[in-house]
Amino acid sequence: MENIHSHLGHSANGLLQEIRQQTAVNIQACYQCGKCSAGCPLAGEMDFPPSLLMRMIQVNKPETDEKVLGAYSMWVCLTCNTCSSRCPMEIDIPRVMDHLREKSFTLGKTNKKASPIIDFHKAFLKSIEVNGRLHELGLIVYYKMLTFRLMQDVMLAPGMLLRGKLHLFPERIRQRKQLAAIFKRTYKRRKEQEV
Ligand code: SF4
Ligand code: SF4
């Protein structure tokens, strides 16, 4: 099995230290009270509820880090902040989930079940990249192309267009050059991380 710790660029430290360094979240402070998991509206959909995910990161072993990065949990997390508002140690779990999504995607460790969610993220970002704001119809078409479900729900579109829920043409922001520069920098950074 590949050693995730060497992937992370820390021979002795894995996700635990990396998260501390890059997000300032101290997962060591978690004492497993379970309040986060008890309040999480998506815990039932997750393979590892938030408290268990925190415990797995605390273990700080390559095998558990592999499991964490391959988890489904972070992809269904809504960033609703219920967990962090209930946590007596004020652990910012949504920030950790965000870090895990990015890391898992960059290392190609994403859970197979998360593919449609990741495609939705891609379609959303493409709409922002092109228009500077969300164009719902463009997002739907691009998402359906990515997931090869172009004809699914197609009969709903005319009604939604008529009711003004969908707009045929996107509204675009003026400063698209600055936006393009942000995306260019982000793609460059991701490529550097992949090396
Ligand atoms: S932010 Fe994510 S992990 Fe926390 S309660 Fe909401 S869905 Fe659950
Ligand atoms: S609520 Fe906070 S301290 Fe309690 S299990 Fe969750 S992360 Fe750990």
Termini separation (Å)?
20 Å
Low-confidence blocks of residues: none
- Reading the helices and strands in chain order gives HHHHHHHHHHHH
Bound molecules: iron/sulfur cluster
Helix content: 55-70%
Number of helices: 12
The average pLDDT score comes to 85
CATH architectural arrangement of the largest domain: Orthogonal Bundle
The share of residues in extended strands comes to: under 5%
CATH superfamily of the largest domain: Alpha-helical ferredoxin
Query: Class of the largest domain in CATH?
Result: Mainly Alpha
What is the structural class?
mainly alpha
Number of strands: 0
Number of domains: 2
| CATH topology name of the largest domain | Fumarate Reductase Iron-sulfur Protein, Chain B, domain 2
Please give the largest β-sheet.
none
Shape: globular
Rounded to an integer, what's the Rg over CA atoms? 19 Å
What does this structure look like?
The structure is a single chain. With 195 residues, the chain is an all-alpha fold. It folds into two domains: 4-108, Alpha-helical ferredoxin (Fumarate Reductase Iron-sulfur Protein, Chain B, domain 2); 114-194, no CATH class. 58% of the residues lie in helices and 0% in strands. The chain has helices spanning 4-7, 15-23, 35-39, 50-59, 62-69, 73-76, 82-86, 93-106, 115-131, 136-146, 156-162, 176-194. The longest helix is centred in the C-terminal third of the chain and has 19 residues, at 176-194. The chain starts with a helix and ends with a helix. The model has no long low-confidence stretch (mean pLDDT 85). The structure holds iron/sulfur cluster (2 copies). The site of one iron/sulfur cluster has 14 residues, from helix 3 and helix 4.
